[in-house]
């Protein structure tokens, strides 16, 4: 169980925090990321190819924004892993669902700031017994012109017992 009660966690729902600072989308990093995720679309490597595909600049792969999890993009005093002290011990926390909703492509040259809101907290019984606590977050990423580029949503799950690999 988390070190905070469900009631205390629910009181945090609706709170927002700056969680990503100055995530610069750089050409070399976009190319490296595309290679790492085995995305061979030439638009991620060439302005010419990007324009031929209808982009205004080199687009980043859809999951590039996950690089925002690196410490270099976190504000001073940031409390990992999501900016909220949920009381979920590391050995009991697992990553649940993840989704992205784009307003427009993420382009080389963009510099993003991200604000995360705790959107819901609830509990349910697990299939293997024990209560699981779910915390849903939404991070809205805005560019250098203060325009919304995308919203990333994810669910953190805290299990009642430590997560153990089954043989």
TrEMBL record:
InterPro entries for this protein: FAS1-like_DH_region (IPR039569), HadA-like (IPR016709), HotDog_dom_sf (IPR029069)
Highest rank taxon of the organism: Archaea
Stretches assigned to the FAS1-like dehydratase domain: 13-150
Any single Pfam family the record assigns to this protein: FAS1_DH_region
Name of this protein: MaoC family dehydratase N-terminal domain-containing protein
